[in-house]
Amino acid sequence: MSVRKLAMVAFRGLFLVLLGMLAADLSGLLAVPWWLNFLPAVLAYALVILVNRWGGAPDKPGVVREPLEVAPPITGRWSALNSPADRTPSHGVHSYGQTFAIDILAEPEPGVRPGFRWFWPIARRPEAFPAYGAPILAVADATVVRVEGRQRDHLSRTSLLGLLYLMTAEAIVREVSGIRRILGNHIVLDLGNGTYAAYAHLQHGSLTVREGDRVHAGQVLARCGNSGNSSEPHLHFQLMDGPDPDGARGVPFTWTGIGVPGNGQTFEAPPAVTAPA
């Protein structure tokens, strides 16, 4: 087990200790100074900071890799969010191999995608968003090495109350529950030469592949959903150097004919090169 994997396991364990100490303190079973209850959380985040300082897995040498060119994972008109074109790590942390990850949202035409609302509606059904149900494609010829497709698609978190819930209670529960609950329904492909592609937040029941399958560039793997740690239907895509996001480092990518779109940039992905399976 890599040092990075051990760090993430310890991170979750410390949060479980925190919850246990708080419960024991509130019930009167544990009599300690109030601040001591939060020591596990301090240690947990200290672990994350150390992992981030090393820029990925501290048990591996810091090798700088050139961006790998792959086909786009979608077709049509989309926009980028949390893009590595603007900063790395793109999501603020190196955890889960997401140093060069990108989030993309379907924008078939201006004004179609529901925007953020301060108060109402608090949440929307995933079907209200144009990304929901969009086909997700293999970016290269590859082997499927990881599949999860049993989690539900939840309501959006695109209001003030929704975001507060996502960033506090829901985020803690998902972190403690592990990478499966963070990525939601997801697929990991082995592209060869030590590079893996991860697709997260896929639609429940839409996955068309199983572990061990060989896929071809442009083949439909699943459909875009709103499972896992997601505020609205979108695709989270990343390349990494291992099949397990808990222990992997991010790998930079570029999409053929597109490059790496920046935050807020709208781009058009051409139809898939090969016919969908």
Q: How would you portray this structure in words?
A:
This protein is an alpha+beta fold. It has 2 domains: about 5-55; about 70-270, Glucose Permease (Domain IIA) (Distorted Sandwich), CATH 2.70.70. The protein has helices at about 5-25, 40-55, 160-175, 180-185, and strands spanning about 70, 75-80, 100-105, 135, 140-150, 185-190, 195-200, 215, 220-225, 235-240, 250, 255, 265-270. The strands form 3 sheets. Strands 2, 3, 5, 6, 7, 8, 10, 11 and 13 form a 9-stranded antiparallel sheet that branches. A two-stranded parallel sheet has the order 1-12. It has a two-stranded antiparallel ribbon with strand order 4-9. Strand 6 and strand 7 form a beta hairpin. The longest helix has 24 residues, at about 5-25. The radius of gyration is 19 Å and the shape is globular. It starts with a helix and ends in an 8-residue tail after the last strand. Mean pLDDT is about 85; it is low at about 55-60.
Distance between the termini: 36 Å
Q: Portion of residues in helices?
A: 10-25%
Low-confidence parts, pLDDT < 50 over ≥5 residues?
55-61
CATH class descriptor of the largest domain: Mainly Beta
- Number of alpha- plus pi-helical segments: 4
Total strands: 13
Estimate the mean pLDDT confidence. Answer: 84
Tell me, what's the shape?
globular
Order of helices and strands: HHEEEEEHHEEEEEEEE
The CATH H-level homologous superfamily of the largest domain: Glucose Permease (Domain IIA)
Could you tell me the strand content as a percent range? 15-25%
Task: Characterize the biggest β-sheet.
Answer: 9 strands, antiparallel
Total domain units: 2
The gyration radius over C-alpha positions equals 19 Å
Task: Predict the CATH topology of the largest domain.
Answer: Glucose Permease (Domain IIA)
**SS-based structural class?**
alpha+beta
Question: Any idea what the CATH architecture of the largest domain is?
Answer: Distorted Sandwich
